[in-house]
Each structure stands twice: as structure tokens, then as C-alpha cells.
Write a structure and sequence with these properties.
There is one protein chain. The chain has one domain (about 1-45, about 55-130): Ferritin, CATH 1.20.1260. The protein is built from 5 helices and no strands. The protein has helices at about 1-20, 25-50, 60-75, 80-105, 110-130. Helix 2 (about 25-50) packs antiparallel against helix 5, helix 3 runs antiparallel to helix 4 and helix 4 packs antiparallel against helix 5. The structure holds fe (ii) ion. Fe (ii) ion binds near residues 5 and 8.
Amino acid sequence: MHACEKGATGVYWGHRAIAKVFYRDLIAQLDEMHGHEVEHYAIFGQLMKARGVRSVIAPVFWCVGGILYGIVTALAGRRAIWRSTAVIESIVTRELKVAADFFENRDSEIHQAILRILEEKAAHMAVGQNNSPGQHA
Ligand SMILES: [Fe+2]
């Protein structure tokens, strides 16, 4: 999950970079979503640090992968930005729900953090879905 969040920061960074050139009306919204992903990455990092768990290996690798993906999808058009957002966030939401179930009776702090993050994921997914109607994963 920590690695996924780092990757997500990269994806939104890539989307924002292209939006700054071609879709300036999207910048504020993408900035806000990118900020959420930065927070999610920090939250998981803090939870892991407090438990003596090693951080994700080479976070820059995950971030660069996300940036490349974000740039490529954004170059395909504004609909592609929102479609990829809807699909990625739906996948991450599924993973986080599994994680929330796992931690529910094991670690209430992690469980609560995941539930909070899930709210923002749902909001991101809705924005992506509303801006690119259609089926997704
Ligand atoms: Fe996130």
C-alpha cells in the first residue's frame, strides 16, 4: 500500500505536468488529488515507522513509474486522465478494503487510517468516473 501511494503521487504528478500545458482548467483539481496521495504516502510511512517496519524499497522507483504512466495517459487526452483515475482508484479501493478487513481486529489505528483514506479514494474515483463515463475495472 505504501508503494502504491508513492506510485499514485507519481501518476498525479504526471497528469499535472501535462495538464499545465494542455488542460489548465484541470490543474487545481489534480493538485488537490495529488496532495491527498502525498498525505496517504506519509500516513502509511508514519504507521510503518511507528511499528518498526521498513519503508518501501526505493520509493523514487515507484514514483518515476507513476510519473511515466501519468504522462503517457495524459498525452492521450483529458478523458484518458479521468479514465485512468477511475480505474486506478477502483483497483486501489479494492485493495484497501481487503487491507481494512485484515487490520480491523489487528490494529485499530491502521484500520481507521485506511477507512479515512478510502473516503478520499472514493471521491477520486467518482471524479474520474463522472468525467469519463463508461465501464471500468
Ligand atoms: Fe492514495
